Amino acid sequence: MTARPTAAPADHRAGEPINESEAIARLRQNADPSQQYYAAWWLGRMRSQHPEAVPLLRDALRQRRGRDPGAGIEENAVARNAARALGKLAPAATDAIPDLLAVLGDPDDGLREAAARALGDLRAESALKPICQLLASGPNQAGASRPDSPRMMEPCEALLEALGDIGIADPAVLAVVEPFIDHARPLIRSAAARALLQLTGEPRWGDLLVSLLNHHQLQVRRAALMDLGAAGWRPALESIRRTPAENSLKLIALRGLVEQGCGAPAEDALLACMDELL
Questions:
Q1: CB atoms < 10 A from the CB of 5, how many?
Q2: Of 38, 91, 182, 221, which residue is least crowded by CB atoms under 10 Å?
Q3: For residue range 49-105, what is the model confidence (pLDDT) as tens digits?
Q4: Among candidates 35, 27, 75, which has minimal Cα distance to 52?
Q5: CATH fold group of domain 1-122
């Protein structure tokens, strides 16, 4: 889905918020991964245009560390934040596509997930084949739950979203995505419907997402809101307005309808609904 909203990581050096120069300096040093972790997040969050931002984030993405208990940083955390930041710096970060492709095969699920979303943000057509290969075994294998973890064998939600964001409606891509419509997890069904809606524009996929706005789990309703916004599905306006979820998330979804969508309802109706929710 459009990447889900995430909280800022804690800055491990108390004091005033940092600026761009400080973020670059923190990312450039390699003695304290907690400072690199925060700097990578900051550069992505602020959509930095500093000429060193992308090269340093690429270096951080290649960085692999074991857990640093003293700093409270888990394995590959810096690389994960670097991948997320590179996606947010699109289109300036297209040079990082080969680095992101390289970590799609990393054993770290979280790093594969972050790389997939970044490749989607960068509209990286070269990622289609490797992402499809990761999903090709379908819901019963790639989408199977790990025996020792709530995670699946592959980060299917992020991979499906990336295919939709890249936006190439090749029959081979559609054939990979469609089986996930029947996945047991509603979040995966939502991601698959979003991708298919983006790729084909067929109303049935928008209708499936709208139906998930009535799901009993708030997490699923939130996901469907974000997916409808990412796909720009304007017929969902009234359903979004009535969804029992936070107004802040409804506003994000409606902004997506304004920015990504076209057709009915017209933009003035969308803006009126946003005003109502403010």
A1: 10
A2: 91
A3: 999 999 999 999 988 765 555 555 567 899 999 999 999 999 999 999 999 999 999
A4: 27
A5: Leucine-rich Repeat Variant (1.25.10)
d(CA 28, CA 26): 5
Q: Tell me the pTM.
A: 0.89
Q: Check whether the bond before 265 is cis (ω within 30° of 0).
A: yes
What is d(CA 227, CA 213) in angstroms, rounded to the nearest whole number? 11
What's the CA gap between 274 and 4, in Å, rounded?
20
Collapse the DSSP code of 152 into the 3-class scheme (helix H, G, I; strand E, B; otherwise coil) and give the result.
strand
**In degrees to the nearest 10, what's the CA dihedral of 194, 195, 198, 200?**
-110
Q: Let me know: does 196 contact 181? Beta carbons within 8 Å.
A: yes
Residue 214: helix, strand or coil by DSSP? coil
CA 206/CA 220 separation, integer angstroms:
15
Write out pLDDT tens, residues 165-176: 999 999 999 999
How big is the chain, counted in residues?
278
d(CA 132, CA 114): 16
pLDDT at 218 over 90: yes
- d(Cα 255, Cα 275) in Å, to the nearest integer? 11
**Residue 175 identity (one-letter amino acid):** A
What tens digit of pLDDT does each residue of 10-20 get? Answer: 444 533 568 99
- Measure the CA–CA gap between 70 and 74, rounded to whole angstroms: 10
